[in-house]
Write a structure and sequence with these properties.
The chain is an alpha/beta fold. It contains four helices and twelve strands. Helix 3 links the parallel strand 11 and strand 12. The radius of gyration is 34 Å and the shape is elongated. The relative contact order is 0.06. GO terms for molecular function: potassium channel activator activity; transmembrane transporter binding; voltage-gated potassium channel activity.
Length: 311
């Protein structure tokens, strides 16, 4: 593992030099004074002293956006709550990158070049609430991608044009998730299992995808109609790209009647009728071939007899 994976999550040594100042009385009052100075912001702490180059750090907010970064900054303040790496050229995030930042609430990675995220990236991000991965090159959302990040409230995966697959267990355990944006990707299908384990889901953005509204989509659409409280933000943008008979139709305009053909079942009489028709067609085919054979034979004999008469 690289140096980013081996970060030491030690408590910062706050004001070490100040702790060594001589004090005429007992040591306890010196530490008390140090605490008061730190609380007042008059003494800098090591937690805020490791602001990465090209970034700005203030009030637990680290802003590294729009700096043309090709990689994530290696060292962040340990108490970072809001981290913005948006509008860069970052292609990968090292495994374990978030391990040391236990206070992280907001992570903004939009508009980068991410094709995937390492497994277990959010394993220690238990306080992460807002995650923005929009405008990247993600191709799939694997199972348990957000494992242990149970505090997530908002996930934005929009504008990933190569996003073709969301694993049925991709959002497993995200009981507090309220907003999920999957719009403007390459999704043709979304499993019902991926969403039915999200009891708190309120807003779902799925417009701008090439949905194939076949029989496999019926369970998802039925669930959406019955469960989602508000799913109208992009309802006009969500439309079917196939099959041809429903191409261009709004996704949410499809009813149970639209999937009626998916539930057609054949009775015994239907099977008997099909078998009878098949038998009749077979007999007719045999009879037709027999007649054609006789006709061809007669023509051949007639032609031969005509030639002999001419001779």
């Amino acid at each position: 593992m690289g140096p980013l994976q081996l970060c030491q999550c030690r408590l910062p040594k706050v004001g070490g030099a100040w702790a060594q100042l001589p004090w005429p009385g007992p040591r306890q009052p010196a530490m008390l004074l140090l605490s008061l100075l730190l609380a007042a912001g008059l003494v800098p702490s090591d937690a805020g002293a490791s602001c990465p180059v090209l970034c700005t750090c203030r009030n637990q907010v680290v802003d590294c956006s729009s700096q043309r970064l090709f990689s994530v900054p290696p060292d962040l303040p340990m108490d970072t709550r809001n981290l913005s790496l948006a509008h860069n050229r970052i292609a990968a995030v090292p495994p374990g990158y978030l391990t040391c930042y236990m206070e992280l609430h907001v992570l903004d990675l939009r508009n980068n070049s991410l094709a995937e995220l390492p497994p277990g990236l959010f394993l220690h991000a238990k306080r992460l609430a807002h995650l923005d991965l929009s405008y990247n090159n993600l191709s799939h959302v694997p199972a348990d991608m957000f494992r242990a990040a149970h505090g997530l409230v908002h996930i934005d995966l929009s504008h990933n044009p190569g996003l073709h697959r969301v694993h049925p267990q991709a959002f497993q355990g995200l009981m507090q998730l309220r907003d999920l944006d999957l719009s403007y990707g390459g999704l043709a299908f979304l499993s019902l299992e991926a969403l039915e384990g999200l009891p708190g889901l309120v807003t779902l953005q799925i417009g701008g995808n090439p949905w194939v509204c076949g029989c496999t989509m019926e369970p998802l659409l039925k669930w959406l109609r019955n469960r989602i409280q508000r799913c109208t933000a992009d309802s006009q943008l969500a439309e079917c790209r196939g099959p041809p008979e429903v191409e261009g139709a709004p996704l949410f305009s499809l009813t149970e009647e639209s999937f009626k053909a998916c539930h057609l079942t054949l009775t015994l009489d239907d099977y008997l009728f099909i078998a009878f028709v098949g038998f009749v067609v077979s007999i007719a085919s045999v009879a037709t071939n027999f007649l054609l054979g006789i006709t061809a034979n007669c023509c051949h004999r007639w032609s031969k007899a005509s030639e002999e008469e001419e001779i």
